[in-house]
Structure formats: C-alpha cells, structure tokens
Design brief:
33 helices, four-stranded antiparallel sheet, about 65% helix
Length: about 900
C-alpha cells in the first residue's frame, strides 16, 4: 500500500503536467505571444536596474561593523571623495594656483557668494552641488589656510584691541590719580603718557610671545607666500617638506588632498551624481592650476562607483557572449528540429527574472551579474530535457500534439522533481550572512521557477505549431542564409570532432567506463571516495584570494587612480576608531586617545621623519591632533578652551558639538582583505578606553574585510555545502517519499565536491570570495543531472530490463540529453571567463572545473551506485568476499 502512494501522486503530477502541455499545444500563438510580451517587458525594465556595490550589500544591518559604520556616518558624514592634487607644493601654495584651489573647494562645498554667478553658470557643477546638498563639508588646503588666516587675524585683532584698551585705560587711570593728588595738568599728562607707554610695552611683549608660539612673524594674509610657507612647511625637515601634523592635507612635498565628505544617508544614485559633479568641477578652467599641478578624483566611494558601473557593461557583454556560445553549443550537441528553441526559453526566463528584479527595486550587484549564465544554462537545460522527451514520443510514432502531451507526462515529473531539488539547493544561500549572497540565492530561486514554467509552456507551444505548408511565416532571405551558414558550420565542426583522435573514441570510452562500473562497482566507488577525501582535505586548507586589486577589472580607471593615490600619499583608504562617552573633553580620555594613536602608528611602521612611505597605517585627521602642544590636555578647562578656539568647520570633523563622539582616523594601504582583517582585529584588540567610554572600529575597509572573512572561512563554506545537500535531500524525500530513491542521486554529487577541489588544486585556479557559494551551485545544478538519469534508469527497470540493459537505455536516451544540457550549462559558466571583472573570470573558471567534475561523477559513478543499490546486490558482493576473508584468517585457501 505504501509503495503505491508515491506512484499515485506521480500519476497526479504527470496528469497535471499533461493538462498544461495540452492547453499550451492547443493555444500556441497566445502562449508564445504572452511569454514574448512578458519577456520583452522584463528586458526593458531590466535596463533600469541600478548598479550597486554599497555597504548594505556587504553585511547585514544587524552586524556590529555595519552599525558602527552607520553611526559614524550619521555623526561625521559619509565616506569622503578625495581630490588628489598632484604637483610640487611650493608651486601650488606659494603662487596664484592657491586661489584657484580655494575656488575649487568653495565650489565643491556648494558655497555661492550672494549676488555672484557660480563658476560654470547656473547649469554647471558648482550650482548643481549647491542645489543637491550632497556634500556635507570639504576639508582642503585652501580652506585650511583661509581658516588659519581668519583665526590668527581674529586673535591678533583681539589682542590689538585689548592692547589699545589697556593703553587707554592705563593712561586714563594715571591721569585720574594725578588729578586726585593735585598735580598740575602738565604732570597729569606726563603721568598718563608714561602709563600708556608701559601698557603698550607689555602688550607688545604679549604679541611677541604669541608670534613665537605660533611661528609667525607678520600679519597673516592668504596671498602672502611667506605666511603660507611658515604655516605649511617644516624648515627642520626641508624647505619644501610639509609639517607632519598636516599629513592629512599635505601627505608629501608633491601632493595635497581635498576631502569631500558626503552627507549621511546618501543613496547610491546620489553618490554617483556627486562623484560626477566633483569630476566636472575639477575640469572647469577657472580652477585648473597653471603651475603644473593636476587633479585626480579618487577614494573608496569612487572605486565602488566605478565597479558598480562596470557591472552594467559586463551584464550586456556577458548576455551577448552567452547567446553566441550557447547557440554554438546547441548547434553541435543538440541535433533536433528547432534546436535553438531552448535558447529562446532561456532569454524569456532571463528577461522576466531581471525585469521582476527591477520592479522590486533590487540593486544590480556583482553576484546578480553572476546569476546570468546560471539562469540561462538552467533554462536551456530544462527546455532541452522537455524537448528530448517530446522527440522520443515522436520517434515512437506519436503525432505532433500527442507527442507534446506524452513528453510532458513521461519526463515532466522527473524534470520538475530535479528543478525543485535545484531550488532547494539554492535556498541554502539564504542562510548566508552576506546580503549580496542572499540576494544571489533569492534571484536564482525565482529564476529557476520561472525557467521551469517557461520551458514547459514554450516548448509545448512551439513544438505544436503546424508543420511547413501551414500558416507559418516564411523567414526573410538573409535569415535563411545565416541559418544555412550556421548549419553548415555546425556540421563541419561535428565532422572535425568526429575525426579528432580523442573525440572519436569518446562514446566507446564512455561505454567502457560504464561497463567497468557495472563489473566492479565496489572498487569504482572506493576509488571515487578516496579521491574525494583527498580533495576535501585540500579544500579545507585552500587559500582564498582577497586582493582587491586582483578582483576588480585591471583596467578600471578608478582602480588606477586609487593606486596613484597610494603612490603619492602612502594610503588608499581610511579606518576610523569612533570613541563615545558622556563627555570626551576629560583629560584622561584625550590622553588615552593620544597614547592609543601613538602606539598603533608605531606598531605599523609609521615614523614621522619618513612619513607614510613604508607604513601600513598612517595618521589622519583625529581629535588628539588638536592638542599637540605641551600641556594642551592638562585640564578639562584647557581642552574646552582649545576646542572653542578651533574653527567649528574643522572641529566638527573630529568631535560632535555635544562632545559625545570623537574619531581617531588612520589611513590604510591597499591590502588583501584577509590581511586587512588582521589589522582591524588588532586595532580592536588594543582598545581599552577609560571607564564610561566605549570605542569601536568603523569604515568601508572594515565592512569589506568583515564580509570577506565571513565568506571565505572554511567552516562557513562547509556549512553552506552541508546545508545545500540537506536541503536537496529533504526536497527529494518530500517528492519521492522513499529514502533510497531520494538519496541515491546525491552520492556522486557529494563525491564530486571532493573531486572538484582536487582538480582545482591540480590546475592551480585561485579561489576568491565568490567561491564561497561554489559548492552550493555545484550541488544544486548537478543534482538535476543525477536525478534525471536515476529516474530514467528506474523507469527502464520497471519496464522489465535488467541492470545493464536499463542503464544502457537510460544513458542512450536521457544520458544524451543530460550531456547536451550539461555542456550548455558549462559553456554558460565559461562565458564568465570573458568578463573584465577578474573576480567573475576566476569564479567562472572554477565553476567550469567543478561542474565538469560533477558531470563526470554522474556519468561514471552513478552506474556503480545504482548497481550496488539494487536489492540484495551489496549483500551478495559482501558474501562473495567472506570465504576469502575466512581462508585468509586461517592462513590458507579452502580445501578442494
């Protein structure tokens, strides 16, 4: 009774599939029309997809690194766009070019003088930056020197006004005292003059002391080269060497930096717009330096924006390449009527899937681009399988419409079961802590379900169309000519392959391998397990390449500019330690921050005399930099007085107005993400703030390193793989309701994960962070091949054939279709090798190797597993081994 229930359920599924196929075959034009409209609508909508490589794709919002970075951005602004000014500093700062730089910084800050037209006019970048409000604040050499002039001038004016008041007050007091004593008017005047001179001498002494303390010996003016030189350069280190404490503005004698910090919460589109406007502003002739300096717009947001923009071109290029490659593959391996129909199914499913993605407002990420070949390959696969079953029915004598219905009923349940198992395998990706990977999994699940529906409907409708001589539209002459050329090329390629020495004997070799698996299934399985075990051991210790410069397009201009930034300044990004407490002006807090800063910089190789050339971390604008003088942090009153004296324009960069959040910033070099994570872990481990104060590490480098650590960890990759296998097993158990029938197809897939690791080790293809999802992809995709073959074998056995005959028939029919669809899927992944994004190229190469190993496992090991799984087969083989074992234990052979 229990054995009949699954059969009845299968008949119910087959009947439902037959009904759908019959409806599509009777209404081919409406079905094909509706699918075409949906596909075109989705494709048009997909052109509006917004590329994104933002922080919210790297870590979940609940991650401590993400929360810390978002809190930092709320208090101090979003990541800064950097304008690197390349040129000899004296030529930039001691000439009229300084005024041009000041004008650029005002433009970038969105500052427009009342009654004046901004540079570039009302439609120019300066006016646009003022309108959008995308920039929160700009820190640059021009702004710094302007503020220095204003601040020092204000202090001098205050001192001069106080001196004048003191002189007048002293003279008046002396005259009044002389009058009270009854002195003559002449003596009163003399006493007043003497008191005024004494007060003036005291004021001059105070002003001289101020000049000595500030290093200035003249009234400050922004157009005075001597004043600018006194502020910027350090004569003790060289006439053109900037002071070390201004490294965040003047990192070297040949570079200056302008930080354009964006407003908190800016969107990806707003960030891209701001980058575009900053670039346009640096190109305005009014701001272009005349003494040899030039501007380079760079920084982490610019690099991410460049990567995001390359995604769109990659998507279009990969789609075109996938169509060409898969069309050629189908022409070679799928010799049937309407052989390119599966490609049309794939295009329809892809258009609908990415159109739905656009309708939901999902971003276009690197992982979403990688979905393209997977989805096209699987959609082609499902269409090939349906097409092959219809062809079998036609070969058996069924008419066109009846063959469509029969093919859907005969092969549909197995294809549907395999597709659902694939969906279950992809569901394991939803367990990933990385939003981008979860989105990758969700997109694959939706795409596979859409591809299954399209395959059934489109194949049924297309193959039911009337034959030649009916209402069919005659294609244009050039279309027929191209088709003839393509057919001729495909035939020539097949003939060439047949005559190739290795390929000519491939079918015989495959039959021989199946024969060996049937004769010695135990040995085949033992060898397969041994090779897989070696691969698993190697995979556990495999290194994941996380060098950012090797994962993005090598010719990406933004990457080139970041390298230029590092070459000129010694750093390429910024890591921030955010300190929070009720009152950060307490002396013990400031002293701890200064000690922490000195200790970290010393540990990572920074020496003030050498600068950032050989250091991993360098100083950036931080709160302790405001208290460099001796005794500056001696008391809370002194600290508050110094903060009050610093222009708010600069103090807001390092401490909030309520004094509850402050920053310690460090510039960091371009490092592999794994090494970057070790540096960040060390920064975090060294945090020991005073009581009542907490500190956390934040910034875009922190997010990227944390995401890579979560992806690349061997234990997490193993967990994802096991979750995928468990999900596939559960899905097959739910469908088949018999453990043996559900688990047998998984055996070669499990072993193939080890073989693929062994192959990757042998060919030395590097893994990258995207490879973390590789095991899930291999399990989910190749499970279908195994399920289809094992189910076809089961059907042949039910028809009365023995094991060998059933396997031969299964491999001759379904095996050929599996080989065709597998070749197409592998070719689809091979298209990724053409991507200009290196991470996608390496991911594609790795996936091709893994899927090839999985296909070999299905074709070569599955027969051995099926043979051993026959009732009584394993016991019989063990029984034949027992006499030998007993004889060996007695020390001799059994008696004759």
């Amino acid at each position: 009774m229990e054995e009949e229930r699954p059969e009845r359920r299968e008949r119910g599924v087959a009947a439902a599939l037959r009904r759908v196929a019959r409806w599509a075959a009777r209404n081919p034009i409406p079905v094909l029309g509706i699918v075409t409209v949906l596909a075109l609508t989705g494709g048009i909508a997909a052109t509006r997809l917004q590329p994104s490589a933002g922080a919210d794709t790297l870590l979940p919002r609940s991650a401590p690194e993400y929360r810390a970075t978002q809190a930092y951005r709320r208090d101090f602004g979003d990541d800064a766009i950097l304008v690197l000014v390349r040129g000899y500093l004296p030529n930039l700062l001691l000439t009229g070019d300084l005024q041009r730089l000041i004008g650029l910084e005002r433009c970038l800050a969105g500052t427009v003088a009342p009654g004046r037209q901004p540079e570039g006019g009302p439609g120019g970048p300066c006016a646009a930056l003022a309108r959008t409000g995308d920039v929160r604040v700009v820190y640059g050499p021009g702004t710094f020197l302007n503020e220095a002039v204003n601040q020092i001038g204000s202090e001098l004016r205050t001192e001069l006004e106080a001196a004048g008041a003191s002189v007048r007050g002293a003279a008046a007091a002396a005259a009044a005292q002389a009058r009270r004593r009854g002195l003559s008017p002449a003596e009163q005047t003399a006493r007043a003059r003497a008191a005024g001179q004494a007060a003036q001498a005291a004021a001059a002494t105070r002003l001289a002391r101020l000049a000595v303390g500030s290093g200035l010996d003249r009234i400050p003016r922004i157009d005075d080269p001597a004043f600018v030189a006194q502020v910027v350069f350090d004569p003790a280190r060289g006439a053109d060497v900037p002071k070390a404490r201004f490294a965040y503005l003047f990192p070297s004698p040949r570079a200056a930096l302008v930080q354009v910090r964006l407003r908190p919460g800016i969107s990806d589109a707003g960030r891209a717009r701001a980058i575009r406007l900053v670039r346009a502003a640096t190109g305005l002739s009014a701001f272009v330096p005349r003494r040899g300096s030039r501007y380079v717009v760079t920084g982490a947001p610019v690099l991410l924006d460049g990567l995001a923009r390359s995604l769109t071109s990659s998507l279009i290029g990969l789609l075109a390449a996938a169509l060409v490659v898969m069309a050629g593959t189908l022409a070679l391996v799928f010799r049937v009527r309407l052989r390119l129909l599966p490609l049309g199914v794939a295009l329809a499913a892809t258009g609908m899937t990415f159109g739905a993605m656009a309708a939901l407002g999902a971003p276009l990420t690197v992982a979403a681009v990688a979905v393209l070949p997977v989805l096209i390959g699987l959609a082609v696969d499902y269409a090939v399988q349906f097409h092959a079953r219809v062809r079998e029915a036609e070969a058996a004598g069924a008419q066109r419409g009846a063959a469509v219905v029969a093919g859907a009923g005969a092969g549909g349940p197995a294809i549907l079961a395999a597709g659902l198992a694939t969906v279950a395998g992809f569901l394991a990706l939803l367990l990933s802590p990385i939003p981008m990977v979860r989105g990758f999994g969700a997109l694959l699940v939706a795409g596979v379900l859409i591809a299954l529906g399209c395959a059934l409907l489109v194949v049924s409708a297309a193959l039911a169309l009337p034959p030649a001589g009916g209402w069919r539209v005659r294609p244009a002459r050039w279309v027929r000519r191209v088709a003839d050329v393509a057919d001729g090329a495909a035939a020539g390629a097949r003939d060439l392959l047949r005559t190739a020495p290795g390929v000519r004997s491939a079918p015989a070799a495959a039959r021989g391998a199946v024969g060996v698996a049937l004769r010695r299934p135990g040995r085949v399985l033992l060898v397969a397990v041994a090779l897989a075990a070696v691969g698993w051991a190697l995979d556990w210790g495999a290194e994941v390449n996380s060098d950012v410069t090797r994962l993005v397009p090598g010719d990406l201009p933004a990457l080139r500019d970041v390298r230029t930034l590092q070459s000129d300044t010694g750093v390429a990004g910024e890591v921030d330690v955010v300190v929070r407490g009720r009152d950060l002006t307490r002396p013990e807090v400031v002293r701890w921050m200064a000690r922490y800063q000195r200790g970290v910089l010393s540990r990572y190789g920074y020496v003030e005399a050498r600068g950032c050339a050989a250091a991993t971390l360098c100083p950036a604008l931080s709160l302790p930099d405001l208290f460099r003088g001796r005794g500056a942090a001696a008391s809370r009153a002194r600290i508050q007085a110094l903060l009050a004296a610093v222009p708010p324009y600069f103090s807001q960069a390092v401490i909030t107005p309520d004094r509850t959040a402050a920053t310690l910033a460090f510039g960091i070099r371009l490092l592999p993400l794994s090494e970057q994570q070790r540096v960040i872990d060390d920064l975090r481990a060294r945090l020991a703030p005073p009581p009542g104060v907490r500190a956390e590490v934040a910034g875009l480098p922190v997010l990227a390193a944390a995401a890579n650590a979560r992806l690349a960890a061997p234990e997490r990759r193993l967990l994802m793989l096991l979750a995928s296998l468990a999900a596939v097993a559960a899905a097959l158990l739910l469908v088949f309701r018999r453990p043996r029938r559900a688990l047998i197809p998984l055996v070669p897939i499990v072993l193939a994960t080890g073989w693929s690791a062994l192959l990757l080790w042998a060919v030395r293809i590097p893994l990258n962070p995207m490879s973390a999802v590789l095991g899930v992809l291999v399990v989910a995709i190749s499970t279908e091949f195994s399920v289809l073959l094992s189910e076809r074998y089961r059907a042949e056995r039910a028809n009365g054939g023995d094991v060998a005959a059933a396997l031969r028939r299964a491999y001759r029919s379904t095996g050929a279709a599996v080989l065709a669809s597998a070749a197409t899927v592998i070719a689809g992944f091979g298209v990724l090798v053409l991507s200009d994004i290196r991470m996608l190229r390496e991911f594609g190469a790795v996936t091709v190797v893994d899927l090839t190993a999985a296909l070999a496992g299905v074709l070569l090991v599955l027969p051995a597993v099926l043979a051993l799984a026959e009732p009584g087969a394993l016991g019989a083989r063990l029984g034949r081994l027992r006499p030998r074992g007993r004889a060996a234990a007695r020390g001799g052979a059994p008696a004759a």
